[in-house]
Amino acid sequence: MKLEYQAYVEAEGNFLRELGITKEDEPLPQTKTGDTIAPNVLLTDEGIEYRLKLKYQANVEAERNFLRELGITKEDEPLPQT
């Protein structure tokens, strides 16, 4: 399992290098919800939960696309469970 994870991390690093994404491209510090918003904006619990769900769904889709590009999964396969 450790070797599979290590191979995954290396492949992800290679993929990001191919896209030209570097450490300098990292986003600025963000709020606890992961979104950059004005400091005087107060979100309700529902608003925070909604933003977190959207971010989670985007991350799942990005991971699914990445695994497809590596050939680990196919279009109709669910993500592997860890």
Describe this structure in words.
This protein is mainly α and 82 residues long. The radius of gyration is 16 Å and the shape is extended. It has one domain. It has helices at residues 2-19, 45-70.
Largest sheet: none
Q: What series of H and E elements makes up the topology?
A: HH
- Quick one: overall form? extended
Helix content: 40-55%
Rg on CA atoms, Å: 16 Å
Using DSSP, what is the number of strands?
A: 0
Based on helices, strands and strand pairing, what is the structural class? mainly alpha
Beta fraction of the residues? under 5%
Number of helices: 2
- What would the average pLDDT be, to the nearest integer? 76
- pLDDT < 50 runs, ≥5 residues: none
- Straight-line distance between termini: 10 Å
Number of domains: 1
Characteristics:
2 helices, 82 residues, mainly alpha, single chain
Topology of this protein?
Elements: H1 2-19, H2 45-70
What would a concise description of this structure say?
The chain contains 2 helices and no strands.
